[in-house]
Design the sequence.
């Protein structure tokens, strides 16, 4: 079984665990390309991020998750949004079904980065914005990406 992602889908399973709070990172390089991971639990593309531990702040979670999943140490980041739509559901292979609440941050990565793939990923790859509609992105992240690139946020900085 693979992880299944739902957003605004009336056929989504009902959560069987408490709400899950985490961070999601929009990581851009100097060419304004977006870094995505091909998740090992679903073989689908997603933003970098993960769950908040009980003893850390959201910003500590952001730094930890980005480092764990990419090997990058980010220091400059900007708060973008909180995604708290109750229809953001993930069903994991272990049977856990969670409502996901994500705090979204943006960070730019300089050209001197060296990426490291974690066990949670099959691949890390930068994508041009015009390629994003042609790849299989998980539902709980597709709307974040669309909102970010179709909004009034300043994407050039």
Sequence:
């Amino acid at each position: 079984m693979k992880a299944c992602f739902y957003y605004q889908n009336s056929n989504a399973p009902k959560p069987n665990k408490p709400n899950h709070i985490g961070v999601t990172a929009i990581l851009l390089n100097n060419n304004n390309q977006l870094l995505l991971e091909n998740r090992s639990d679903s073989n689908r593309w997603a933003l970098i991020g993960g769950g908040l531990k009980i003893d850390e702040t959201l910003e500590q979670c952001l730094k930890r998750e980005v480092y764990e999943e990419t090997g990058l140490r980010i220091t400059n980041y900007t708060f973008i949004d909180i995604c708290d739509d109750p229809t953001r559901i993930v069903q994991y292979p272990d049977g856990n079904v969670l409502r996901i609440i994500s705090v979204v941050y943006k960070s730019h990565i300089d050209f001197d980065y060296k990426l490291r793939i974690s066990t949670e990923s099959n691949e890390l790859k930068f994508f041009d914005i015009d390629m994003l509609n042609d790849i299989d992105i998980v539902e709980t992240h597709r709307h974040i990406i669309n909102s970010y690139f179709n909004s009034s946020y300043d994407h050039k900085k």
